């Protein structure tokens, strides 16, 4: 089965940086798009950034210019470099990937990580 393992969250001062990592493991044929979502208390879950298998990226306006998403296809891993962090970035960050599992039927399905907490204090 496919699993996503996240790491890199933590407590950081405003203006600081964090780098989130998410590695997919298990029976994987290929991975299409990968992305990061976040959800703060009392707010809707929102897409932070996404990246296609070809490297095209998409960012939420609130993080554009501060966050950078990248991926290492050989390692089935997606990263989120978070710079100039603000208190409003505080949220639980979830990794998402459209994964084609190994098997007779090759079809992508959405998989989610357990989430990693990012807390930014001033």
What is the gist of this entry?
The protein is mostly beta strands. It is built from no helices and eleven strands.
Helicity range of the residues?
A: under 10%
Order of helices and strands: EEEEEEEEEEE
What does the radius of gyration come to?
14 Å
Q: What distance separates the N and C termini?
A: 41 Å
The coarse silhouette is elongated
The secondary-structure class comes to: mainly beta
β-strand percent reads over 45%
What's the β-strand tally? 11
**Biggest sheet, open or closed, and with what strands and sense?**
7 strands, mixed
The number of helical runs is 0
Unreliable residue runs: none
Please state the average pLDDT score. Answer: 96
Protein architecture, described:
It is elongated and about 50 Å long. The mean pLDDT is 96. The protein is an all-beta fold. Strands 2, 4, 5, 6, 9, 10 and 11 form a 7-stranded mixed sheet that branches. Strands 1-3-8-7 form a 4-stranded antiparallel sheet, with no helix packed on it. It contains no helices and 11 strands.
